[in-house]
Amino acid sequence: MNQIILFDGVCQFCDKSVQFILKRDLNGKFSFCSLQSDTGFQLRKDYHIPEELDSIILIQGEKYHSKSTAALKIARELKGGWKWLYIFIVIPRPIRDAVYDRVARNRLKWFGEKTACELPTPEVRKRFLS
Which GO molecular-function terms appear in the entry (predicted)? Predict the structure, then answer.
């Protein structure tokens, strides 16, 4: 099953996260789409994702996951020891999301905004929805 990751296209931390996932998603399970793109907007509409939700969003089949749940489900699919992070799913979601929200609120202040785009290889470019 192909899974779609929606991310903030202007956030440096989000961009680095996408690059991190790409390097560890050796089977190409994930496709990527910026929340700010036309396709991102349409996916939000199709999946009834609230507009004010600006966190990482993982679309799997007919469902979507956001915030810490999305991050942990993504980690579970990555090469290496990252899959072990999924054990934190046992922590109640409100607690996990409180930590996630703290980072999310400060991500632009701590990591900045993207000022330039890296040109991906044609192979990687195919994994991005426009």
Answer: protein-disulfide reductase activity
Whether 117 shows a pLDDT value over 60: the answer reads no
Cβ-proximal residues to 66 (8 Å cutoff; 6+ apart), any chain: 49, 53, 55, 56, 57, 58
- Cα–Cα distance, 70 to 77 (Å, whole number): 11
Query: 32, 18 in Cβ contact below 8 A?
Result: yes
Radius of gyration of the chain (CA): 14
* pLDDT confidence tier of residue 116, bands split at 50, 70 and 90: low
Residues 45-73 as b or e (16 or more Cβ within 10 Å = b): eeeebeeeebbbbbbeeeebbbbbbbbbe
Per domain, the residue ranges of the chain are 3-121
Beta-bridge partner residues of 70: none
What integer pLDDT is reported at residue 108 of this predicted model?
Answer: 64
The set of residues, in sequence order, having a beta carbon less than 8 Å from that of 39 and lying 6+ positions away, is 33, 129, 130
> pTM for the whole thing?
0.85
